[in-house]
Specification:
458 residues; mainly alpha; two-stranded antiparallel ribbon; 6 strands; 60% helix; binds arginine; Fumarate_lyase_CS
Length: 458
């Protein structure tokens, strides 16, 4: 049998394989609430403009609300023959209210309908991500406050570089997730325009009021160009871009947690709640949650590339290719929400092993730069020469198998006679960290300022 929505032109129904490749109901049923909300706003506007009667509008709105509760209570029967959420809802509406249902689609197309539903969904999802990121930032602020003075090694090339504080390291992540949250807020602003009323692509001859529907649906204003409106999936691409950047941050953090929780590093201990054991090796405690966060990032990045690739060859306006937008966004959204929540849990729960961090901070000649800086400041050496002298001191310490601070004054003076006992004041990790008071530096006093700045904005 031919289709009840466009049967007029068709003698037969689709091939089985056509139905299978064409249907999106399996995933776009997720848009049911947005679809119904959009239809209620559209019908209300049509009646307000005198395009449909008030009586038909009342029947439509009542029917749509019935469908909403049918779906939410699990009674609704979705049909693949009806392709997508839009036609499933409309067909059910016809069963419920009869002929009036046929007036709902006046001055509308599935092209602007799907653009509306999906935009509403993405906007709501971004609002959820904003809240989740705020919790993650809060978890980091607590740890940073607790550990503003906890010394750990800072790394470059994953080689010990200079001592920093764990609080400072935590605040680096606060900056990253703070930027992600700003991107979320900007994206919400970018997409805050209502597509409904663009119709198939050219607008409509009916005297609709797009400002009215835009307002009813919580958008700032209607979109300006009907062709762009049904062609545009920038809001989905922007969501995926933001998700990918955020997931990249989460993945770097996950990687650090994996490294820090090894017995070799031993900087943190994961709580039982966020680790697993081994079925064969009884001693094991594995950072599975962190590893899965790292892996989810691959999925999310893949979704961005998939949708960019779908969109890149499409002529204006709508093409069915665009139906493939939703699964990428739904999957990425689910992965991102999980990753942020798991990371928030891990950060809140993990035990910081301050003794291990401090011991590691002092090894690997991490205060060599402090020695060089002292030579510049106290002995007037040019920095390049101070660098060279310090390099010789490191080589000597290495040869003797000791730390810089364990070299004797005679040893140091044999390298450069200008060195005095005052040098030993700067060779400890605490002195090193406390000295780095430049704006944004690792000194506990500076880290506390960073925390206060964020507390006022979180
Ligand atoms: N299910 C479709 C989608 O997700 C709805 C729009 C269909 N429009 C069309 N002209 N076939 O994109």
């Amino acid at each position: 049998s031919s289709n009840q929505m466009w049967g007029g032109r068709f003698a037969s129904g689709p091939a089985a394989i056509m139905e299978e490749i064409n249907a999106s109901i399996g995933f776009d049923k997720k848009l049911y609430a947005q679809d119904i909300r959009g239809s209620i706003a559209h019908a209300t506007m049509l009646a307000h403009q005198g395009i449909i009667s008030a009586d038909d509008k009342d029947k439509i709105v009542h029917g749509l609300n019935t469908i909403l509760s049918e779906i939410e209570s699990g009674q609704f029967v979705f049909s693949r023959k009806l392709e997508d959420i839009h036609m499933n809802v409309e067909a059910r509406l016809a069963e419920l209210i009869g002929a009036a249902a046929g007036r709902l689609h006046t001055a509308r197309s599935r092209n602007d309908q799907v653009a509306l539903d999906f935009r509403l969904w993405v906007k709501e999802e971004l609002q959820k991500v904003e809240v989740s990121l705020t919790s993650l930032i809060a978890a980091f602020l607590d740890r940073a406050e607790e550990h503003a003075d906890t010394v750990m090694p800072g790394f470059t090339h994953l080689q010990t570089a200079q001592p920093v504080t764990f609080g400072h390291h935590c605040m680096a992540y606060v900056e990253m997730f703070g930027r992600d949250r700003q991107r979320v807020r900007h994206a919400i602003e970018h997409m805050d325009e209502s597509p409904i009323g663009a119709a198939a692509l050219a607008g409509t001859g009916f005297a609709i009021d797009r400002h009215m529907t835009a307002k009813a649906l919580g958008f700032r204003e209607p979109t300006r160009n009907s062709i762009d409106t049904v062609s545009d999936r920038d809001f989905a691409l922007e969501f995926l871009s933001i998700a990918s950047i955020c997931a990249t941050h989460l993945s770097r953090l996950a990687e650090e947690i994996v490294i820090w929780s090894t017995p070799q590093f031993g900087f943190v201990r994961l709580s039982d709640a966020f680790s697993t054991g081994s079925s064969i090796m009884p001693q094991k405690k594995n950072p599975d949650a962190a590893e899965l966060v790292r892996a989810k990032t691959g999925r999310i990045n893949g979704s961005l590339i998939a949708l960019l690739t779908v969109m890149k060859g499409l002529p204006l306006a709508y093409s069915k290719d665009m139906q493939e937008d939703k699964e990428q966004v739904f999957d990425a959204a689910e992965s991102l929400e999980l990753a942020i929540a798991a990371m928030t849990g891990m950060i809140g729960d993990l035990t910081v092993r301050t003794d291990r961090m401090k011991a590691a901070a002092g090894s690997g000649y991490s205060t060599a730069t402090d020695l060089a800086d002292w030579l510049v400041r106290e002995a007037g050496l040019p920095f390049r020469e101070a660098h060279h002298v310090t390099g010789r001191a490191v080589a000597l310490a290495e040869q003797k198998g000791c730390d810089l601070a364990e070299l004797s004054l005679e040893d140091l003076q044999s390298i450069n006679p200008a060195i005095t006992a005052g040098i030993f004041d700067v060779l400890t990790v605490e002195a090193s960290v406390a000295s780095r008071k430049s704006f944004g530096g690792t000194a506990p006093s500076e880290v506390k300022k960073q925390i206060a700045w964020w507390r006022a904005r979180n």
